[in-house]
Design brief:
This protein has helices at about 15-20, 30-50, 110-115, 125-130, 135-160, 185-195, 230-240, 255-260, 275-285; strands at about 55-65, 70, 70-75, 75-80, 90-100, 120-125, 170, 215, 220, 225, 245-250, 265-270. By secondary structure, the chain is α/β, with parallel strands linked by helices. Helix 5 (about 135-160) crosses helix 6 (about 185-195). The longest helix is centred in the middle third of the chain and has 26 residues, at about 135-160.
Length: about 290
């Protein structure tokens, strides 16, 4: 099929369009919009390329606190023997998020993409790294928080079991993880190791998992109070990715967890260490378990 070539007496459609856009035919409002459009487009280009004060986060690693990390036990006991484990043993997975390092360049297109994805999040840098101006300072702060969290976790677990730290020495070791959010699971791991999963608080029973992979998050105080941590939606995805069927979540963050809950992951709200143990015992025995 041949396409007619416009002649001199018959202006092309393109020429007609240009004619309609001729400045001599534009209204005052159209001229104003045209003049404003150029700097506005330039502004959008600058904003798109400018670094923003956000960190990009995604589901991070998980670690079994009743298992090994880098070929060494996460929890070691001395002064008292831990319970015997056997085939079909479950897991207690603490969960993390992985975020871009402080000072990393994050631009508008990346923030926009994260907004529409369920496995990514754009978070204010101050929310991810509230202390420290560089990586060295942040790592030092996170290690300090981890030590405090571990100390509180051991105290809470022994207090729950009515055991004295003079009789039981607990060592916690977990590489490449900082911050306080593993506190609840450190406490649960100690209780599990000391046989507090069944029966009385004296630690004469079995484990807590019932053969399941249990994951979760939450800070812990020495009195057993469980606190919120942030990043819960991403942590639930890390848990599901690594085989968990149950996720313990601080009650204050239930709504966040439910909003993006992975299919097949059961959410159990907790306020205290005692409540978490009670829920796991009920789950293990087929009893009533609270839900978000």
């Amino acid at each position: 099929m041949n396409t007619p070539v416009p002649g001199p007496s018959s202006p092309s459609r393109f020429g007609a369009v240009l004619g309609r856009l001729s400045p001599r035919r534009l209204t005052g409002r159209q001229r104003t919009l045209l003049v404003c459009a150029v700097p506005l487009a330039a502004l959008f280009a600058v904003v798109a390329l400018a670094p923003l004060p956000f960190a990009l986060a995604q589901p991070g690693l998980t670690a079994d606190v009743i298992g090994d990390s880098k070929h060494k036990p996460v929890i070691t006991l001395s002064g008292e023997k831990g319970r015997k484990t056997g085939p079909g043993e479950g897991k207690l997975l603490m969960t993390t998020i992985a975020a871009t390092q402080p000072g990393a360049t994050v631009r508008l297109p990346e923030v926009a993409e994260a907004w529409f994805r369920t496995d990514r999040a754009a978070m204010p840098v101050d929310a991810v790294y509230p202390v420290g101006d560089n990586l060295k300072e942040i790592e030092k702060h996170n290690r300090g928080e981890m030590r405090e969290s571990q100390n509180a976790a051991v105290k809470a677990a022994l207090r729950y079991l009515h055991k004295s730290p003079r009789d039981v020495r607990v060592t916690l070791r977990l590489a490449d993880v900082g911050g306080p959010s593993a506190g609840l699971f450190f406490s649960l791991g100690v209780i599990d190791k000391l046989g507090g999963g069944d029966g009385g608080r004296g630690g004469t029973g079995g484990g807590l998992t019932g053969g399941r992979v249990i994951a979760g998050t939450g800070t812990i105080k020495a009195d057993g109070t469980v606190g919120p941590v942030g990043g819960v939606p991403l942590k639930t995805k890390a848990a599901k990715r690594d085989g968990a069927s149950v996720f313990l979540v601080p009650r204050a963050e239930c709504a966040d967890a439910v909003a993006e809950r992975p299919k097949g992951l059961r959410l159990v709200p907790v306020d205290t260490l005692g409540g978490a143990v009670k829920a796991l015992r009920a789950l293990k025995g087929g009893g009533r378990v609270p839900a978000c």
